[in-house]
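Supplementary Text 2. Reproducibility record for the structural model of the 107-residue chain.

All settings were left at their defaults, and a single model was retained for analysis rather than an ensemble. We include the record here because the model underlies the residue-level annotations in Supplementary Table 4.
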Amino acid sequence: MDHQIFVPVTLFVCITYAVKLLIDARVRVLLLRSAPSELEIGNLLRLEEQRTQQASLRAGITLVTLALGFGLIALFDIRDITPGTIAVLAGATGVGNLAFYFLSRRL
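Retained model, structure tokens:
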């Protein structure tokens, strides 16, 4: 990959993630300043933990299905980027998101 593209994209992703972390921390500080009860703090922490676990589950399922999509492309020895290869990867991503949806509804 060309460094002229890779470095700015990586920098943008890092800055975006840092801003997200700062906003999340600021929201927590403002929430704690409003003096909520211990029950409310406990509920909030549990909800945040569930959200983190679900995000990890979604990313894991989607990456596994994408890996299967790439495996199918390698199995059929497809070397060119065609609409078919893009469809395989898009379909794998969709299947991963649907699997997460149905799994999260069961949990």
